[in-house]
Amino acid sequence: MTFYEKMLCHAAAYFICKPEVFKDYLDDIDYQYDAENHLISYKDITTKKGELPFLNGSCFHSLKNHYIMTLLILCFYIEPKIYNSFKEEEAFDLFDEFFLKKFIECIENYGISELPIEMQYHDYVHKSGIVKSILETYFPDDGISIYKLVRKFFMLKDFKGSKEIYIKVMRGITGNSEDWKTDLFSSLDKKLLDDEEFLFDVSKKACNNWGIPFGYASKRIKNNKLFAIKACNISGSNLTDFNTKFYSDRDVVLLAVASYPDSYEWIDDVLKKDKLIYDLALLNAENDSRKNRYKKIYEEL
Amino acid sequence: MKNLQNTHQEAIKSVKDKKEAIFYLITLEKKLDESKVKKTIQIL
User: Which residues from chain B sit within 8 angstroms of residue A16, using beta carbons?
Assistant: First the structure.
C-alpha cells in the first residue's frame, strides 16, 4: 500500500520540479520562480481535489501527512508565496504555529538516517515528518542544503517581522548552527538589530555564540555601557562584541572576567594589572594551563 | 516491485505537459484506491 502512496508523491514532486531544475534554486537562494520551468504547480493538485484526494488534505491532516508535507516543503522552497495560498485553503487559526512546529522538526531531524526499506512498515514516518528518500533528491543530506530552507522561510512577510518566530526557529534548529544562524542574523532588518529587548531575548533564550546577537547589533547598542554590562552578565565572551572602549572600563571588565575568565586576555593592560581582576581570572580559570597563561600575562606587564 | 519502480521512473520522465502529468497522477491515485480495497478485502 505504501508503495503506491510513495510513487504518487514521487511523481507529483517530479512534475512540480525536476531535480535538475531544482539545482538552480538550491545554488542561488534568490533564484526566481518561473512557472514555465515546471510541469505543474501545487495549485494544480489542489484544484483537482475530487480526483486527487490523497494529495489534498485539510487542516491538521495536511501537515501531519508526510507525503503532503514533502510536497509542501518542495513547493515552498521554489516559491515561498505558495505558503499563503496553502494557508488560505486551510483557513485554520493555528496554521502558522502548527506549520512552524513541523518546519522546525523537518530541518532539525533531516540528518537522521531512514530505517532500511525492509523495516519500513506501512505506517513508517521518518523523524523529520517528510519522505526523506524523495526530498533527498532535491536537498542532499550534506548537512548544509536543508538549512537553506530557513533563509527562504524568512523571506515570507508573515515571518520576517516576528521576533518570537526568529527566537523559536533559532532555538528549535540546532544543527549546522554557525553557518545558517550567522547568515540569517547578518541579513536581519536593521530595526531588529537596534532593538535591545529582541537582542537580549535572543541571547538568553536562543543563541549567544559566533557573535550572535551583539556582534551584529547597531552602534547605539554596542556603545551603551548599560547594555555591555547586561550582556557580559549573560556571558563575558560578549565583551568582544561591544565597543573596544569597554576593554578599559572596570565595571564591564569585572563582570566579563567573572563569567568568562579568558576575557582577561583582551582587556586593557592597566586593568590586567588590577589585583582584583587578576585574582578573579585565576579563580575562574578553567584549568592550570589557562591559569599559567594569565600568570604569564600578568608578570610580563 | 523493482520492475514496477523502473517502469514508473521511465513513465514520469516521458511526461511532456501539464495535462499528461495530471492524468498520470490521477491514474496512480486510482491504483492507490484499488490497492486499498484489495488490502481491506484481504483483512476481511
Answer: none
Spatial separation of the C-alpha atoms in residues A107 and B24, rounded to whole Å: 30
3-state secondary structure of A136: coil
Distance between CA atoms of A181 and A183, rounded to whole angstroms?
5
pTM: 0.84
| Cβ–Cβ pairs < 8 A, chains A and B | 59
Chain A interface mutation, best of B22, B26, B37, highest count of A Cβ atoms under 10 Å: B22
CB contact under 8 A, A54 and B32: yes
Domain coordinates in residue numbering, chain A: 2-160, 223-301
Residue A13: per-residue pLDDT? 97
pLDDT at B40: 72
Test A52 with B26 for CB contact under 8 angstroms. yes
Quote the domain boundaries for residue B39. 2-43
CA A109 – CA B31 distance, rounded (Å) = 32
* A32 to chain B, closest Cα gap in Å: 21
CB-CB neighbors (< 8 A) of B36 in chain A: 1
Of the candidates A128, A197, A190, A183, the residue with the CA atom closest to the CA atom of residue A151: A183
Measured in whole angstroms, how far is the alpha carbon of residue B40 from the centre of its chain? 18
DSSP string, A207-245: --BTTBTGGGS-HHHHT-HHHHHHHHHH-GGGGGGS-GG
Q: What is the pLDDT of residue A160?
A: 81
Distance from CA of B44 to the nearest CA of A (A): 16
A13-56 pLDDT, tens digit per residue, is 999 999 999 999 999 989 999 999 999 998 899 888 889 888 88
Look at B29 and A52 and tell me if their CB atoms are within 8 Å: yes
Instruction: For chain A of 301 residues, list the mean pLDDT of each consecutive stretch of 10.
Output: 83 96 94 94 88 75 81 93 81 82 94 82 84 95 93 85 90 90 88 95 93 95 97 95 97 96 95 96 94 94 85
Domain count, chain B: 1
